[in-house]
Amino acid sequence: MGTVYKIVELVGTSDSSWEDAAAAAVKAAGESLRDLRIATVTELDMHIAEDGSVAAYRTKVKLSFKHEAGA
């Protein structure tokens, strides 16, 4: 029988870069999920402050992890 993976989608944020936002999402997932396998960036966006500056970088990430029977 082959291996089965679950996929979750998270949005990480950072005040410095999309890369840091993606890393934040992966780090948060790693705190509650085991056997993370692949992270795929699906969307990049920014939150714009009232003064027109970038307030936050946001990265949407799909993360796959090994499915365990009964989970």
CATH topology type = Dodecin subunit-like
Strand order of the largest sheet: 1-3-2
Per CATH, the architecture is 2-Layer Sandwich
Please report the number of helical segments: 1
What does this protein structure show overall?
With 71 residues, the protein is of the alpha+beta class. It has one domain: Dodecin subunit-like (2-Layer Sandwich). It has one helix and three strands; from the N terminus they run E-H-E-E. 11% of the residues are buried. The mean pLDDT is 93.
Summarize the structure.
The chain is of the alpha+beta class and 71 residues long. The protein has one helix spanning 18-30, and strands spanning 5-14, 36-48, 54-66.
Tag the structure with descriptive keywords:
71 residues; Dodecin subunit-like; three-stranded antiparallel sheet
Topology:
Blueprint: E1 5-14, H1 18-30, E2 36-48, E3 54-66
Antiparallel strand pairs: 1-3, 2-3
